[in-house]
Amino acid sequence: FRNYSLARIFNLFIHYELNNKDLLEYIVKSTHRYLIKNNKLNKFEPLVINFLKDTLSNDYSKEGRIRRMLKLKQDILKIYNDPLEKYSIDFFDLISWIESKIQDKPFAEIIREKSRSFSKQ
Questions:
Q1: How big is the chain by its Cα radius of gyration, in Å?
Q2: d(Cα 22, Cα 28) in Å, to the nearest integer?
Q3: In this predicted model, what pLDDT tens digit does every residue of 23-56 receive, in sequence order?
């Protein structure tokens, strides 16, 4: 069930990226109900659900998106050292994805930069 739950969360990010606002609103609610029903809500899932709900109910301006991304990153970093949460966050390198949105760079570029910095250490 854990990977299925993560796949549902990942699906939310796909539709966020595609800017499918109408569908995203529906699948955020559906995913939230699924996670509650199956007792799969850790700390990570509500952060994502709340971020997306906030995004859907607020403006899509660049400044608004960046502000919400910074808040999500801050919240994710608070729970990152918890082993149960770390798995979910690293499943899809969420921190790098958030960084790509904040810096307005392609996700792949952020990954390459991280890879280079790790190889230099």
A1: 15
A2: 10
A3: 999 999 999 999 999 877 788 999 999 999 998 8
Q: Which residues, including other chains, have CB under 8 Å from residue 84's CB and lie 6 or more apart?
A: 42
* Cβ within 8 Å of residue 35, ≥6 positions away: 5, 8, 41, 45, 49
DSSP 41-107: --SHHHHHHHHHHHHHHS---HHHHHHHHHHHHHHHHHHTTSHHHHHHHHHTTHHHHHHHHHHT--H
| Ramachandran category for residue 92: left, alpha or beta (phi over 0 → left; psi -120 to 50 → alpha) | beta
Answer whether 48's CB lies under 8 Å from 68's CB. Answer: no
> pTM for this one?
0.85
Contact 75, 89 (CB under 8 A): no
CB 51 within 8 A of CB 16: no
6: Cα within 13 Å, side-chain hemisphere:
14
What's the pLDDT score for residue 46? Answer: 92
